[in-house]
Amino acid sequence: MPRTSLAAALCLAAASALAPAAPAAAEPYQTLAIDQVEKMLGQPGVVILDANTPDLWAKHHLPGAVHITGRRLAEVLPQDREARLVFYCSGPK
Predict the structure, then answer these.
(1) Number of H helices, E strands in the chain
(2) Which residues on adjacent β-strands are paired with residue 67?
(3) CA distances to 3, 43, 89, 90, 91 from 12, in Å
(4) Full DSSP string of 27-68
(5) What is the pTM of this model?
(6) Which of 90, 34, 44 is nearest to 64 (CA)?
(7) Is 92 strand, coil or helix?
(8) Rounded distance, CA 34 to CA 40, Å?
(9) Pairwise CA distance, residues 9 & 59, whole Å
């Protein structure tokens, strides 16, 4: 996906990653830049979760992303509890 398409797909998305086995005192979430998410696409142990509306999903989802809108998280989360989860959406409208 070209960088401009990736940027358009994220549309100032709030991409957050859940760090595996984070210490209790540390903040387990972090905001990622678009280029960081781009480098993670297709990497083992990384699950990309898209929380956009169905129309935005159809037009702009990232390669390999799982569409989660309208689904229970238990249905889409990986069994690997060490996986790094990256959530993104287009943001509030």
Answers:
(1) 4, 5
(2) 50
(3) 14, 22, 8, 6, 7
(4) -SEEE--HHHHHHHTT-TTEEEEE-S-HHHHHHHPPTT-EE-
(5) 0.69
(6) 44
(7) coil
(8) 10
(9) 8
Give, in degrees to the nearest 5, the angle at Cα 75 between 19 and 86: 25
Decide if 9 contacts 38 (C-beta within 8 A): no
Q: What is the pLDDT of residues 72-84, one digit of tens each?
A: 989 999 999 999 9
What token pair was written down for 88? 């993104």
pLDDT digits (tens, 9 = 90+) for 18-58: 444 445 557 788 999 989 999 999 999 999 999 999 999 99
> What letter represents residue 30's amino acid?
Q
78 in Cβ contact with 46 (< 8 Å):
no
